[in-house]
Specification:
The protein is α/β, with parallel strands linked by helices. It has one domain (about 5-220): Vaccinia Virus protein VP39 (Rossmann fold, 3-Layer(aba) Sandwich), CATH 3.40.50.150. The protein has helices spanning about 5-10, 15-35, 50-60, 75-90, 125-135, 160-170, 215-220, and strands at about 40-45, 65-75, 95-100, 115-120, 140-150, 170-180, 185-190. Strands 3-2-1-4-5-7-6 form a seven-stranded mixed sheet, with helices on both faces. Helix 2 (about 15-35) packs across helix 3 (about 50-60) and helix 5 (about 125-135) runs parallel beside helix 6 (about 160-170).
Length: about 250
């Protein structure tokens, strides 16, 4: 795990690009919890980092005790921090898993999810893999589930295509927010098509070498805020820059 990325994560401030995007992600999470019917709420977060997006909402949300969540990340420091945060909040049904979120098998036992978080991923993988992830998302979701995703709008801006790919997969768009003073954007949608059977053999995405990642190229070209080279992309990285996904 890159110490440079750990330092990047420590740079969060109230008015940083990262913090602004985080607030929009948390608004989407809060809205999903508000809409959820009575009973348990299953959450699956891929490339979850330390889970500050979800935990930050659950800290004061009235449905916090209803949430049953699995957050998957490859970075031991983030998993340990997330577990400590969940314990501090008394949220014993929040599970942080040290594992590879790019394979569907890592979600086995945690699906179908009522809320699927795909944040900090799409700036680090190929366009083809983004489309594949959107296509397979209904296999991870319950009927009526909400998906929240992020992607930088650095040129060429892929977000119009991503929005279309989620629509094609059966999601009705709920919101798309361009984060002010940033290339970051946050999208959310509700599954209106029937969920599809879970397939544990699916690989959702593969993180590109750093130099080939769209977010890294944008950073090198000075096209917007981005994280350090070699960093791990998480739900808290404002422009999806960073290394391999957790």
């Amino acid at each position: 795990m890159s110490s440079e990325w750990v330092e990047w994560m420590r740079q969060y401030g109230e008015d940083s690009h990262q913090a602004r995007r985080l607030r929009f992600v948390q608004e989407a999470i809060r809205a999903a919890l508000d809409r959820a019917p009575p009973g348990p709420i299953r959450v699956l977060s891929l490339c979850a980092g330390d889970g500050r997006d979800l935990l930050g909402v659950l800290a004061d949300h009235p449905r916090a005790r209803d949430v049953r969540a699995r957050l998957i990340d490859l970075t031991p420091e983030f998993v340990a921090a997330g577990r400590a945060g969940a314990r501090a909040l008394g949220l014993h049904a929040i599970e942080f898993v040290l594992g590879d979120a790019s394979v569907a098998a890592s979600a086995e036992g945690a699906v179908p999810a009522d809320l699927l978080l795909l944040c900090g991923i799409f700036g680090n993988v190929s366009d083809r893999d983004i489309r594949a992830t959107a296509h397979h998302a209904p296999e991870l979701c319950a009927a009526g589930a909400t998906v929240v995703w992020t992607r930088g709008r650095f040129p060429p801006d892929l977000t119009p295509s991503i929005r279309e790919w989620f629509r094609d997969a059966g999601f009705e768009e709920l919101a798309f927010v361009a984060v002010p003073d940033s290339t970051a954007s946050v999208g959310s949608g509700r599954l209106v098509a029937p969920p599809r059977p879970f397939d544990r053999a699916v690989r959702l995405f593969t993180f590109l070498p750093d130099a080939e990642r769209p977010a890294s190229r944008a950073r090198a070209a000075g096209l917007g805020p981005a994280g350090p080279a070699g960093a791990v992309a998480t739900a808290t990285d404002a422009s999806d820059a960073g290394p391999r996904g957790t």
